[in-house]
Amino acid sequence: MTKTSNAMWGGRFAAGPDAIMEAINASIGFDKRLAAQDIAGSRAHAAMLAATGIVSDSDAEAMREGLLTVLSEIEEGRFEFSTALEDIHMNVEARLKEVIGEPAGRLHTGRSRNDQVATDFKLWVRDQLDAAETGLVALIEALLVQAEAGADWVMPGFTHLQTAQPVTWGHHMMAYVEMFGRDLSRVRDARARMNECPLGAAALAGTSFPIDREMTAEALGFDRPAANSLDAVSDRDFALEFLSAASICAMHLSRFAEELVIWSSAQFRFVALSDRFSTGSSIMPQKKNPDAAELIRAKVGRIFGANVALMTVMKGLPLAYSKDMQEDKEQVFDAADNLMLALAAMEGMVRDMAPQREALEGAAGAGFSTATDLADWLVRVLGMPFREAHHVTGALVAKAEARGCDLPELSLAEMQEVHGEITKAVYDVLGVHNSVASRVSYGGTAPAQVRAQIARWKEVLG
Ligand code: ARG
User: Fold this and answer.
1) Per-residue pLDDT at 1 exceeds 70
2) 86 Cα nearest atom in ligand 1
3) Distance from the CA of 117 to the center of ligand 1, in angstroms?
């Protein structure tokens, strides 16, 4: 083997790689993030090799101890990563050789970097699914606190961002609890489905060594070994499921962030965001900007991007492993980092924010928000067909608009000019509190319904 040739496959190679080849080929710059997973996988593999008699107990013990030494070198920043050694797997193995000598050469028996990287990456993504679960639960709990405090506060509900009908603050908060609750279940589903161990699939076909795949799967916390070696080394849908769930969650975060940006503006003043999650302006002394909300709104871009990127890398790849798949990692790392940051920032903002009851209630009745209640009253009390009631109510709204007042400020005489049978009992349904209290249908905005949903969620989260 010449000096410039490769330590791992130098037998076949006379010359080392071109510098450009080394640059495009190396992944150590980013896959060093998999060091802990790589070493856990190798330690499980070494123990299995001894248990099955493939290597001696003393060799396996040396490997397992040596791998811990390498791990502490990496964790303490004392490890020198080498681009010539391409990736985390070969960096760790080469260092192990320096630390323990000859037994290190037996570690790669019955496995390949293909099953190794699939295992490492799965372990890493599994940790991210767990972190996302923790972040989502914390966010939902923060929303429940806000929902409970303002379960019966009224605010305008919107469609087309135009005033539609009054709703309760608690109801609005609970809408996000439902969304993040589905994100939580997506994350849990993905974790349950992905939890099969690729290790032992070897390069693509399995191995002739009498390995025990159940043993390594169990040692690494997997439910079972993956059942097809070709699939095991070429499956990246676990990462795609993470990115899909992350994308949907980021989209939910972005919608909520947008509402917080609108609500914290001087024109709305529905919420006051805390100083801890706002910034000032270098020129305009009065400004308090909702930067955290804006950044959460924007993070969705890179998370969607990661999802599209990996989908595109994977489409059209023949079985089994192709080097294309080395491009699976960086964007998943970035998406995971930013999702966790966005979840934590949103949780902090929600915990700290102060909804402004007076502003919410003041706005709740504006824009003829109880017009539907009025139409429903005409149907219920006067027996009018809904279409006619809609028409009559429209005329009343036009009258109020012409007078520059809200519906409850029209006199009974003015109402009766539009329809003679209207009685003063109609005023009961024109108030926003009565309006929300009346919407007792399951899932409706009535405080009683909102409180029932809060109680249900508290029980779900335990
Ligand atoms: N660094 C590689 C990756 O991330 C490891 C697997 C390499 N396998 C191979 N057959 N060259 O995909």
Assistant:
1) no
2) 1
3) 7
Render 424-442 in DSSP notation, one character per residue: GGGHHHHSHHHHHHH--ST
* Token representation of residue 249: 């969650």
Indicate the length of the chain as a whole number. Answer: 462
Catalytic residue among 56, 281, 322, 411: 281
Is residue 236 within 8 A of residue 272, CB to CB? The reply is no
Q: Rounded to the nearest whole angstrom, what is the distance from the C-alpha of residue 315 to the centroid of ligand 1? A: 18
pLDDT surpasses 60 at 2? no
Q: Give the distance, in angstroms, between the CA of residue 302 and the centroid of all CA atoms in the same chain.
A: 13
Q: Which residues line ligand 1 (CB under 6 A)?
A: 27, 31, 87, 113-114, 117, 321, 323, 325-326
- 80-92 per-position pLDDT tens digit: 999 999 999 999 9
Q: What is the 152 CA–ligand 1 centroid distance (Å)?
A: 57
Report which ligand 1 atom has the smallest distance to the Cα of 203.
10
Q: Is there a contact between 132 and 245 (Cβ–Cβ < 8 Å)?
A: yes
The model's confidence at residue 326, banded by pLDDT at 50, 70 and 90, is: very high
Q: Is the pTM of this model over 0.85?
A: yes
CA distance 257 to 249: 12
Contacts for 216 with CB less than 8 Å, ≥ 6 apart: 41, 44, 45, 48, 197, 199, 200, 225
Q: Which of 184-188, 281-285, 287-291 has the highest mean pLDDT?
A: 184-188
Active site residue 108: no
| pLDDT tier, 366 (very low <50, low <70, confident <90, very high otherwise) | confident
Atom 4 in ligand 1: which residue has the minimum CA distance?
326
pLDDT, tens digit (0-9, with 9 covering 90-100), for 93-145: 999 999 999 999 999 999 999 999 999 999 999 999 999 999 999 999 999 99
- Torsion (CA) 233, 237, 242, 247 in degrees, nearest 10: 140
A 10 A CB-CB count for 425 gives 9
352 Cβ contact partners less than 8 Å away, ≥ 6 residues apart: 273, 274, 276, 277
In this predicted structure, the answer to whether residue 3 has a pLDDT above a threshold of 60 is: no
Q: How far away, in angstroms, is 186 Cα from ligand 1 center? A: 29
CB within 8 A of 256, min separation 6: which ones?
176, 296, 346
Q: What is the mean pLDDT of the chain?
A: 95
**Does the bond joining 15 to the residue before it have cis omega, within 30 degrees of 0?**
no
Annotation says 390 is catalytic: no
